[in-house]
Amino acid sequence: MAYSERMRFAFLIYLFASVTSLHAEKPFDFASTPGKLPKQVRPTEYAIWVKPDLKKLAFAGRETVKLNVAEPTHELILNALDLTITDAEIDGKTVPKTAIKFDAKNELLTIATPEELTPGEHTLAIRFAGKINQFGRGLFYTKYQEQGTGAKKMFLGTQFEATDARRLFPCWDEPVFRARFQLTAVVPENWMAVSNMPIASEKKVAGGREVEFQPTPSMSSYLNVFCAGEFDAIESEVDGVKLRITTTKGKAESGRYALEATAQILHYYNEYFGISYPLPKLDQLAIPGGFGGAMENWGGITYYETALLFDPANSSAATKQRVYEVIAHEVAHQWFGDLVTMAWWDNLWLNEGFASWMGAKCTARFNPQWEVWLEKGIPRDPARRIGIAKEQAMEGDARATTHPIQQKVATEAEANSAFDDITYKKGQSFLRMLESFLGEEPFRDGIRRYMQAHKYSNSTTADLWNALTEASGRPIVEIAAGWTEQPGFPVVNVSRESNGKVALSQERFTVNFRDNTDATWKIPLTYFIDGQSAPATLLMSGKMATLEDVPSDRALKLNVEGAGNYRVAYDEASWKLLLASLPGMNVPDQVNLLSDAWAFFQAGRQPFTFYTGLIDRLPPSTALAVREQIINAFNSIDRLLAGAPGQEQFRRYARRVLRPTLDTLTLQPKPGGPMTASLLRASLVQELGLLGDEEVIKMCRQNFENYLKDRSSVSADLRASTFAIAMRYGDAATWQKLHELGLKTTSTEEKQNYYDALAFASDPKLIQKSLAIALTDELPTSRAVFMVSKVARESDRPDLAWEFAGKNLKALVAKVDALNANSYLPSLFTFFYDPARIEELKAFAQKNLSEPSRKPVEIASDEILFRADFRKRLIEQMHTLQ
Ligand SMILES: [Zn+2]
């Protein structure tokens, strides 16, 4: 049963309410939407023709754009980047070359019109040429080895979000300028071409085949897609929509699971949103490189192969789960993002927070055994810290360097930087808290109203709150403002008083800085009293509140199942009662207590023994999420203690805590066990191996030897951990073997496993060899660059990784995609704990980085300071371990 149905509402007592100074933004209005482009000219229809030249890595193009002019004007201002314009016409009249001006810095194209454009319809025609890129922006190419034949092949794809459609064709490249797009492309004779809409017609032309696609409905420019290559495909249909999974040749059957999952997901959303999927078909393409994630292009979603393909014989359970979740996220965007689009990038969270929440909700509904709300979430890059999605967001949000969910975005670089944990994961976490509070049905009704009101149009956060307020009758705008418009989140302090009263107070929860503001949140609190059946809710509106009638001998737990985006600090009496009730508590609540205890230790509010004391009191169990929390915490402690006194003592303690769970699960997999057991075994084997468990290390080495002889001897779930530990304690020969396997395989998932393992080498000579891979074309560019951050993390030698990056700056940066462009280099410093590195980073940034990297530099500097302090505290307190 869903949690929200079990809730009842409790009495709410205000002691005092602070007046909030936050003001929600306005509902969507075209004219006042931010952006660089003037609003008096709007494109309504584009007809675009492109012809790629694979040898020259360039393309020729032409387009006709129908315009609606609202006020008389003498110029057209639109976006273009890295394009040359060969000629332009307005209403059939040639525009002189001198009337066409590029502003490269602002990515603008200005065309002075030969005559004043009067209000009404006009037509712009342009001929242009551009480049096919190596990095995943605009039109890009990827080279890959074909499955089966091993032949080197080329693939073309596009990636436009946030602001790169302008690299393929001149356009009004801001989300509010919706239009219909009709694409025609010339591709080699034997290639298949895919775009947002079905093919309207095809014909043979000089140099290949000309494919004309049907026009799209009204949509934002960044949602266009064009992919072409030697493809295979499998198809099905659901609710009248044609579904197709397209892969490079030889891989289509690995798309079977994705095809089946999509049918389930699309049908669920048709019902949930109350509007059926609006296009005649949904293509999903597995692409072998170019960019690392997945992109929700309307009707033509692109995925990096590992996010879409699942091979039952060789893929891990983790891959299966990720595939489902990523599809659920991207398909949710077909409504939330594509059918209704945020007006401007300052509301990006509307797209991403919502798709993350909706994707997780859908995944949890059809896969209840996966503990979806407690699992890792979708990492945006492979070097990112792991941990529950909500916790990842809260870690960053507790720092001085955080920002509100809604933030001002003025430039293209700022739009690209907005794709971060706060936007995705705090957004998701806040929506989950709100849904728990309102109840599933009122929340869904609000979403349906919102969809109806804004379909084929744009919206702001205010529009969503208004729809939810209408559906639920509750003041959502007031509740939401504190969460989306101010940075950070609260900790609720719980203190028992006499007569069954419990006093609650709130303050901002911070790590590594002191908050001087008087921020408060309207907190939709949930709580339960041990022994009383139903959880209750309380909207805590001010600094303080009181709970009544709480028996003094009963445990009181706030933040039921950890669904709320806040922490809870209990007084001693309450904590003792909670510890005593721990054995009967459900897994999500146990994980919530562990996460809070860990955060309090990080924040310096509690000593290490507070966290370890909780671990000691946990009942023995093999619950995945509980153990994963501990594994993640131990992993970061062990890294921070590298080379420090006390590391050995810590490792002994950590092994003692973790090993019994592995023994219960058994070291070698048992056939037919639950998927969570399989995932937990893999995590435990890897962590215990890193912590120096001799038996586990021996087993991994043996398993690796066996694997070389017979692939099926190591289960797919255990491979990544086995390779990592074999490499950590291996030599040059191990490195060589893994590398050979990596070079040979045409499976992207397997390739990733082998190369990931190379990052675990500990011999400096081998570390250098692993780093050098980043400069080769052995991995797709978007993956290759992350070899450096992976080595920095896994080898415990961030100094070598940084030294390498410093020497190869240009070559590395040329491979980084739009979303990582600003943070890639600064993020390499987040693995250091020596404050002297801050000066080094700042000096480096001054010399080599541009303004948009300022924020990532601040974040990295703050992380170094935090790590220095945390390491010091860890070393001081290590003797407290039993
Ligand atoms: Zn998304």
Structure commentary:
The structure is a single chain. The chain has 882 residues and is α+β, with helices and mostly antiparallel strands. An eight-stranded mixed beta sheet has the order 7-6-10-4-3-13-16-15, with no helix packed on it. Strands 2-29-26-25-31 form a five-stranded mixed beta sheet. The structure holds zinc ion. Zinc ion (ZN) binds next to helix 2 and helix 3.
Main sheet: strand order? 7-6-10-4-3-13-16-15
Main pleated sheet:
8 strands, mixed
Mean pLDDT, as a whole number?
91
Question: So what's the overall shape?
Answer: globular
Approximate helicity band = 25-40%
Which stretches are poorly predicted, pLDDT < 50 over at least 5 residues?
1-21, 377-387
Total strand count, please? 31
State the secondary-structure class: alpha+beta
Distance from N terminus to C terminus (CA atoms, Å) equals: 41 Å
The radius of gyration is 28 Å
User: Which strand-content bin applies to the residues?
Assistant: 15-25%
Count up the helices: 27
